[in-house]
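User: tokens in, sequence out, please.
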């Protein structure tokens, strides 16, 4: 049986040697621990349980009674102490409102969420669309506030827009756009004297593919150098081939290589995948096909 009130948890449990008792868990506070130890002198901290173990057949009942008498006072004392600490050294921020407790309202940020989840008693309020933090958690909130505020400022729409504009103006962005356009053409250079087998799952420098046709069209050197620098034809010319992505079923049925590709295989531009690589490709393909099926299902509703 478990009873929980405002962060205090009392659970009936037996020790490893069969001793009857109960565990008590609550956020650490020196004064609270001192009062708890005074009330339960036989209590011992258990690292394996992450809680205090109180022996006795009536331990759980005693813990509940203590909680009813003391815990509300403990929280009130902790809230007052946090309120005084804030008054002495307040946090001035546009992201923090103060009332009965703290209200933290920021743009969406995974970093902010991760930080606030580590603050005791912090909770998301869907009605306010903000986080509520009681005064008793002020010290932990203050410790994490620099990271919270920095992440919030970075997440502001104007800051996001500036970063996006800067990214689009960079040479790297233009190169990525050109590479994406090239991939959509579903073509790949192969040495004229070492063409790949058709209708088999193979690995290339653009991932797993199934070659469907060797067109024989010559590849321009500038195109090969820009988009396929890892493919080397040697004395032979590079010619275009047409490819498609393999299905999950084809990846499952593909026969793996016993050894990793050699430098010559990598330079040629295509090779037989190992079982480790096939497993990765199967996971990606399976996830993609499930996502596509979900989208089709939603579109048909």
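Assistant: Sequence out:
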């Amino acid at each position: 049986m478990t009873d929980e009130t405002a962060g205090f948890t009392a659970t009936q449990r037996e020790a490893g040697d069969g001793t009857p008792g109960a565990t008590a868990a609550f956020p650490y506070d020196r004064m609270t621990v001192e009062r708890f130890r005074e009330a339960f002198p036989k209590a011992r901290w258990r690292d394996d349980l992450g809680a205090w173990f109180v022996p006795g057949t009536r331990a759980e009942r005693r813990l509940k009674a203590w909680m009813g008498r003391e815990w509300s006072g403990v929280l009130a004392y902790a809230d007052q102490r946090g309120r005084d600490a804030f008054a002495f050294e307040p946090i001035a921020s546009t992201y923090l409102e103060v009332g009965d407790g703290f209200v933290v309202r920021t743009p969406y940020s995974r970093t902010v969420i991760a930080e606030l989840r580590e603050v005791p008693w912090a909770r998301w309020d869907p009605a306010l669309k903000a986080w509520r933090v009681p005064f008793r958690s002020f010290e932990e909130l203050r410790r994490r506030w620099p990271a919270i505020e920095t992440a919030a400022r970075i997440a502001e729409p104007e800051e996001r827009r500036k970063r996006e504009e800067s990214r689009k103006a960079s040479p790297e962005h233009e190169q990525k756009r050109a590479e994406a356009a090239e991939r959509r053409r579903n073509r790949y250079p192969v040495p004229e004297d070492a063409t790949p087998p058709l209708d088999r799952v193979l690995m290339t420098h653009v991932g797993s593919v199934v070659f469907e046709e060797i067109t024989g069209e010559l590849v321009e050197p500038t195109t090969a150098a820009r988009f396929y620098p890892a493919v080397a034809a040697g004395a032979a010319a590079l010619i275009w081939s047409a490819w498609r992505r393999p299905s999950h079923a084809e990846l499952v049925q593909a026969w793996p290589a016993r050894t990793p590709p050699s430098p010559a295989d990598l330079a040629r531009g295509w090779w037989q995948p190992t079982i480790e690589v096939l497993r990765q490709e199967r996971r990606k393909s399976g996830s993609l096909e499930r996502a596509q099926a979900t989208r089709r299902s939603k579109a048909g509703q």
